[in-house]
Amino acid sequence: MGNGEQAITRQWARLGLQLPLHRLCGVFYTHVGFYLNQVLMTSALQTFAFMCAFFALGQRLDLGFADGAVGVSASYFGLLYLVFVTASMIPLLLETWVEEGLRAAFGSVANSLLSLSPVFAAFQSKMMAFYFEATVHYGGAQYIPTGRGLATAREPFVKLFQTFAASHMQDGMELAAFLCFGAAVSYQWPFYLCMSFSIYSWTLAPFLFNPRQFDCPQQAWRDLGDWAAWMCAPGLDPGEAWVAWADRQQQV
Length: 252
Description:
By secondary structure, this protein is mostly helical.
């Protein structure tokens, strides 16, 4: 991701020193700040999930701050997450309202919700955060020619897993594990709703939005069998064995 490498260049330092504040805020929000916001949002979810488990264990250890921290997390996290999602939808609502009217605006929002656009948006946000952070740490941004057409080919389960396990699925399962550790403490339903939505988006969105995923249930079962065989197979080829693929993931 080119914005990751741009964020640490001297050009951005010059812009920050020379632009007036109102223009700098606009440039920051539409460029580096947009991707940095995805990183902070993803990090906040992971931090709150860790806190969920930590405070639950803290109560068992009689830590004095655990009860107050649980109250703050339960009271504000779900509310702030819903405000963030609502704020993300407001530009679409206002633009459609101005151009086509209030009824069309609410219809557009309803259509987005019914087509599971928030699920895809959460998945896309996690992807941008992962690659932005990885590019800042390791570099290596490059242009990938994708052509002008739409991707309509159905991908097998194994390929989707190989593509998105490191960036989405591992973190999604980590959130689920932290919630299980924190099950002894109630954080109220908004907290669990937002966390469950994030886990669902990060782990299942690649399969949910895979073209022609639900046309043939038998194909889905065959993909699941191929994935199970790939997970258990020995070998040195990452395309044939999970062990070789996982070993290659450790190489930076």
